[in-house]
Design brief:
The chain is about 50% helix and about 10% strand. By secondary structure, it is α+β, with helices and mostly antiparallel strands. The chain has three domains: about 100 residues, no CATH class; about 90 residues; about 140 residues, Intergrase catalytic core (hpI Integrase, Chain A), CATH 1.10.443.10. The C terminus is likely disordered.
Length: about 375
């Protein structure tokens, strides 16, 4: 259906001023929707030509009025054409506001994502980790790339989002970006978060992706048996860097700490009581919750082994995540385990294989 777009200028004879001039009004009509506004101009009623929407006067004042009315005509046409081209969502009120310069353009998806990322950046070290901030940046870049390639736009208003957007984005991540199911799910979660933010702010009143169900991951969290842990602990490893990663893995097994927690572990976080028992008191980077973990003999030995190697008060000088992941896989192959070994499995083995065997109540690890 073709839109009916009209606009005109007229004078309000009912509000003639003391100087005898009448205010010039504007009216924009789009598909029966009307928006009226004051142009801020005025003219003598006997000089006004309602058919052409101009003054017939020749004074400097009247010539200036006509010149400014022509500029308003041009502005209305320009904003209408721009909205048709870029937005697809147009109302008479939006055109009026754009012409008068009082409108806030609809808040856009990437703009909101950028704002959310900035908030995460400011909270790094408080209740978010650097890894979380980097994942937001990655999510923003991929969404930006999708919008550019799919819609040939730099951004997209929330009120233009349709159900097909999230389906197309899901497919794009899988096919064009070759992402694994877990990575796709994370990007879809980011997108949903932006929708929730927009709804909370009143930018939109409905969820355009309501009812969408993304492919669910089957939980594959694995842990090691006591026999497998022993294999790793007793394996003969000649290369010092791989031996270090083995020690960090074992440290994770016996403390339940993640890679990030081990990397950030500081000397002052290792506490002792009056009876000589030692504990690790640490705020988890992922959950921002305080954890108290008893320090068993094995991790104590590892701490002693690397005493003095940490920098800036840290207990260990941890290798980067990529290296740790690569060496962990090598350790798994060396030990001939029947499962793919990942560093994340170390902390999952803590509750199942260590807490139970060492008589540590899981509820005390909080």
């Amino acid at each position: 259906m073709r839109s009916t777009f009209k606009y005109l200028f007229y004078i309000n004879r009912n509000k003639t001023k003391k100087n005898g001039l009448c205010p010039i009004m504007g009216r924009i009509t789009l598909d029966g929707d009307i928006a009226q506004f004051s142009t801020g101009l005025e003219t003598a009623p006997d000089l006004w030509d309602g058919k052409v929407g101009q003054s017939t006067g020749k004074t400097l004042h009247e010539l200036k009025v006509n010149r400014e009315l022509k500029e308003l005509f041009k502005a209305i046409e320009t904003h209408y054409a721009r909205m048709v081209e870029n937005d697809g969502y147009i109302t008479a009120e939006r055109i009026k506001n754009a012409v008068l310069g009082i409108a806030k353009e609809p808040t856009t998806l990437l703009k909101e994502f950028e704002e959310a990322t900035t908030e995460i950046e400011k909270s790094v070290g408080i209740n978010h980790s650097t890894a979380t901030y980097k994942s937001y940046i990655n999510g923003y870049m991929n969404l930006s790339r999708f919008i550019k390639e799919k819609y040939d736009k730099e951004d997209i208003p929330f009120n233009q989002l349709e159900y097909s957007f999230i389906e197309d984005y899901d497919l794009y991540l899988k096919t064009e970006q070759r992402m694994a199911k877990g990575s796709v799910l994370q990007h879809i979660i980011f997108l949903r978060k932006m929708i929730k933010r927009a709804m909370n702010k009143g930018i939109i009143t409905r969820n355009p992706f309501f009812g969408y169900v993304s492919d669910q991951l089957v939980s594959k969290h694995k842990w090691l048996s006591s026999e497998e842990i022993e294999k790793i602990m007793t394996a003969s490893i000649d290369k010092p860097s791989i031996d270090f990663v083995r020690d960090m893995f074992v440290f994770g097994v016996f403390t339940g700490l993640s890679y990030c927690d081990i990397k950030s572990l500081r000397k002052e976080q290792i506490l002792s009581d009056s009876e000589g028992n030692q504990w690790i008191s640490i705020k988890r980077q992922k959950t921002n919750t305080e954890s108290i973990v008893p320090l068993l003999d094995v991790p104590k030995e590892i701490i002693r082994k690397y005493e003095g190697t940490g920098e800036g008060g840290k207990v260990f000088k941890m290798l980067c995540m990529n290296v740790v992941c690569r060496y962990t896989k090598e350790i798994g192959k060396l030990c001939k385990l029947d499962k793919k070994l990942t560093f994340h499995m170390s902390r999952h083995s803590f509750a199942t294989s260590v807490c139970l065997s060492q008589g540590i109540p899981i509820e005390t690890v909080k």
